[in-house]
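TODO from last week: model DUF2316 family protein.
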Amino acid sequence: MSLNPQQVKNTINELQENFNRSGLTKEQVAADLHISLAKLERLFTLTQSSLNDPWILRNYLIEKVQANGQEPVAFTALVGDWHQYWFLNSRAIDQRKITAGDN
């Protein structure tokens, strides 16, 4: 799935706003997801190679925002049930298996 430039901009903003609402630091997020800060930054800027990884971050942030007693910002492009998208590995997303390495 390719996002158009406006969808990319919106998704980056939605990820950032949900991160802000989570009350976590980037170090905490990286540790929870077992990734480097460099990889986390690639996820926040949507420059990560894997299509699954942004969905993992999205789901993680939604969970943490709700746990922080906040209402998550709705996503406008990363929507619906990821199990229904043929191009995503729903098992990897469900298990929060972010791809190895920083790319």
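Done. The chain has a mean pLDDT of 95.
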